[in-house]
Fold this sequence. Notes:
This protein has helices at 4-14, 149-157, 196-206, 221-230, 251-257, 292-310, 330-335, 344-349, 364-369; strands spanning 20-24, 32-33, 37-38, 48-49, 53-56, 66-73, 87-91, 103-106, 110-113, 116-119, 128-129, 140-141, 145-146, 162-166, 170-175, 180-181, 192-193, 210-213, 236-240, 261-265, 276-280, 283-288, 320-322, 430-432. It has 443 residues and is of the alpha+beta class. The longest helix is centred in the C-terminal third of the chain and has 19 residues, at 292-310.
Amino acid sequence: MISVTDALNELFALVSPLASETVPLLDAPGRVLAQPVSATRDQPPFASSAMDGYALKAEEVDLHAQFKVIGESAAGHGFDGTLKPGHAVRIFTGAPVPDGASHVVIQEDVERRGSLITITAPQSVSNIRPLGTDFTSGHRLDAPRRLSPEDIALLAAMNIAELPVTRRTSVALISTGDELVMPGETPSRDQIIASNTFGLHALLRNLGAAPRLLPIARDNRESLETTLTLAKDADLIVTIGGASVGDHDLVGTVAADMGLERAFYKIAMRPGKPLMAGRLGGSVMVGLPGNPVSAMVCGHIFLAPLIRALQGFKPAPVARKSATLTAPSARMARANITSAPMSKMARSQCSNVKIARSSRSCPKQTRSRFPRPTPPPNPPGARSPTSPSPDPRHQKPHARRPFSHESPGPLHLTENIPGVWGAGPPLLPAVWEAAPHLSQRSE
């Protein structure tokens, strides 16, 4: 059994970036740019007007100054002549600024009579977009980079019609088990619907891979061998279920007989403990647990970074996020977790749990090794701990306040709730993007 970090390192050692291919710009959204590309022109390629108005010489612009309109400049149809003193050119947004002009007076600041205009308001800004404001020729878009719709627009403006992208990762998804049927089929009393491969298919497709579903492999050697043979041309083979140690869990045994070079089996994480990985022929093989939560959690933690590494990104785990819970979750309620702070030594005993637990849910040695500190003194008039206990028939059965959905108002992890004594700041839970695996415990 190895740690999550070691498992990721083993997976990264099995792969290298895939080759690139050239695709048309319209087929590039969501793909990963494999090589840097550079702009072939300036944008805008000329000084253009930012407003509708009149193009003039900046040194002639003054309140009540008059000019003669001699032509027009529109987008796609510029003014061919050169502007002379005392002249103006009617201009529209996006149109090229005529030679000799250095200022655009917006039409709202002009009074026009026939071919004469008069400036009726003071001027401050030029209303001209200089050449190359967006980017200049040679501007580079670096790789690797997952191409967004905004990137596609930028590449089009850079006059790039085709570009190199990393080949899509082909992934073969294999569900295993006699108990499974496909959605839309009628299961027998002892069967369930295969759902894991559909969730993983959506996850992988969103990552830019090219997943495909293979037939369900039944719990016998012949079916598993046939299905694994169908997957031999894939970059990545993902099996779901059959990776544990039950009598019907045959994936590891059959794959080994077919030449699997196993990198590891079992990780110190729950859910997801019976994870397996290695190389089968020219493919990387990952065996996921069959539990739906385990399969999806492992998909986020292991398959997503693996796909990114194959696409050319630097091998790295998924990003962690930290947050403060403002209300109890169902899991916390079942575990009777309180939000009171724990001592530093007690936290070290429960370091594999991401949130502070009550003394009842922490390891036994935590309670016996570290005695409960003396509570603060009681307020005046309160009953002393050594005072005779009241009649138990009238005593409220409240020893600690667990998290529950019936608790009045929102509960905060920084709230001081009886149940765990200790010094130090409250613990904040570390929440991964795949929220279900809040704890990584080896048992």
